[in-house]
Design brief:
The complex is a heterodimer of chains A (162) and B (102).
Chain A lengths: L1 H20 L3 H21 L3 H25 L1 H5 L1 H6 L3 H24 L4 E3 L5 H8 L4 H22 L3
Chain B lengths: L2 E3 H21 L3 H26 L3 H31 L13
Helix pairs in contact in B: 1-2, 2-3
Classes of the chains: A mainly alpha (162), B mainly alpha (102).
């Protein structure tokens, strides 16, 4: 299971990097799906099967499909990858690369110094998560439902023709 | 069972967040910026799952569920906004939306 974690992590990071740099919108979304699946395997390897299932159903299944729908609706924008490439000339890469690399190096360096011991992983199942969700974090569930309702109303209002 | 150092989980999470930030800075197309934000949210989710595994507590996983609910609402509103911008400006270029510039 340890090797599974490292292989899936490498896959998730590489696929995420490809997803944010591809000029073809559909390819980018498919790389994002690959990254999400690899991350779901990571969650499984870390003993979180409930969240792994949710990652596939909610993220890869629902959220990414909604993004795909919108990409199809703004068809011109999705197919114009010559345009997309023109928006990313080599000089546009310099500052983002510098900033993101320094951010990554700082966090990774700080984490590498604080040498944490290896942890024995045992699964924390759906039962425990559900019990915590509906007792300790009940107010959070209510707030999340209000947030989703607000999202629904907001999306309906913004999406309607006027 | 598996033995993974907590530091390594957090390093992967930090790399995902950095990649997402890189994408937001690099891209000019609003749809791709939204995609990069999703990558950042997943990095945060991985850190929570790592913490959940480290202390054998379900709390971290509960927060990942909240992150997913938040991401769903964010994507719904964000995509509706992008559609509305596309209708009004006929472009998804973030640099073209500068009507407020004095």
């Amino acid at each position: 299971m340890t090797q599974v974690f490292y292989i899936a992590s490498a896959l998730a990071v590489i696929a995420a990097l490809l997803a944010v740099t591809r000029s073809n919108a559909l390819h980018a979304v498919l790389y994002l799906v690959l990254s999400l699946f690899a991350l779901a395997i990571d969650f499984l390897a870390l003993g979180a099967p409930f969240v792994a299932a949710l990652e596939i159903i909610v993220y890869a299944g629902a959220i990414v499909v909604v993004i795909l729908f919108v990409m199809m609706m703004v068809a011109g924008a999705a197919t114009a990858h010559a345009q997309e490439r023109a928006w990313m000339p080599p000089r546009a890469w310099v500052v983002p690369t510098l900033l993101a690399t320094s951010l990554a190096l700082l966090t990774v360096g700080a984490l590498a110094i604080s040498g944490e011991q290896a942890i024995e992983i045992t699964a924390v199942g759906p039962q425990q998560v559900g019990a915590a969700l509906f007792t300790t974090y009940l107010i959070g569930v209510e707030l999340a439902s209000v947030l989703l309702l607000a999202g629904l109303v907001g999306a309906y209002y913004l999406g309607s023709d006027d | 069972m598996a033995m993974v150092p907590t530091g390594h989980v957090l390093i992967v999470a930090a790399m995902l967040v950095s990649i997402g930030a890189f994408g937001v800075l690099l891209r000019r197309n609003l749809l791709f910026m939204l995609l990069a934000v999703e990558v950042m949210l997943n990095g945060a989710a991985l850190a929570f799952v790592g913490a959940s595994a480290r202390w054998q507590q379900p709390d971290g996983q509960v927060f990942v569920v909240f992150i997913m609910a938040m991401a769903a609402a964010e994507v719904a509103v964000g995509l509706a906004l992008i559609l509305q911008i596309y209708r009004r400006a006929s472009t998804l270029d973030a640099d073209a939306l500068d009507q407020l510039r004095g």
